[in-house]
């Protein structure tokens, strides 16, 4: 099934204008069958298949397809460069974007590649020195996009890149300045577009999939969202900066609480932290990166959980279904919330993260990373 809304919702379904022509090549499809004599270790078949896969990857694009819709290697182009990070709160010099994901996708806004399925994309991963090489790109117009594990936000090169047959474009150094206003006061999680680093509970024994027992992908178990109600039957999650550990104390998904056979209620998580000093004239910045959202709403309040109007709300967001589909990430979203210094007090403060939508057990979101920044400091 090449195009489906089953996992990622409507975002992954191609959208067309009335009468718009469209065609896209899927394939060629390669199927490999191997065998082993009775009594031999069957895992050798798996190792052999992986070797064969690597050979075929190196052979792409194949030269045998006769269709004009499948350009040969010499009819495609390449793009090369190096990606660096500029963040003065980390270093005065540029930092190498080791392991960055770099790709060419149809022109659009930063991050728009996530929802693009009508056309073609070509991606690679930068090496430990930040160098990348994107090979065998179909002719056409593209933007260069990137995201870097360990840093929030999306990079987009400002100029459209035109690929023609046989071209070899040298991009040189591209500099990504991730969102940043001030110094980090505290952070929760790892900015990697996944909720996998947070606490994933053991599955309910009646749902357990034994293929994933003692597996690194602990989230691949049905019904994990129901464990939240069992672990927090009355009050919601409270996380204390400097005391709590996100690997043990931050549930992997903020979901609803079940309160009856078919009844649910929204949840409000608390982040408690100390401030030794408060700049009451300054603006603090709360960065909230979501790894997934499904028919949910994020409301942010500061030191007053009962205020009628939240300081910030996303409104209704998300249809990527990752919670119900046993995924650990869906469509990445980054929200930047200005918090006036007058909202804080010297001593203990609390940020309230409320998800009020509660019509089904699957409504909620997964956090990727949360950071509170202080007001900007002089250069």
UniProtKB/TrEMBL annotation:
Residues 98-169, 184-372 form the Rhamnogalacturonan lyase domain. Keywords: Signal. One of its GO terms (molecular function) is carbohydrate binding. Gene3D superfamilies: Carboxypeptidase-like, regulatory domain, Galactose-binding domain-like. This is Rhamnogalacturonan endolyase. CDD domains: RGL4_C (cd10317), RGL4_M (cd10316). Signal peptide: none annotated. The lineage of its organism: Eukaryota, Viridiplantae, Streptophyta, Embryophyta, Tracheophyta. It comes from the Eukaryota.
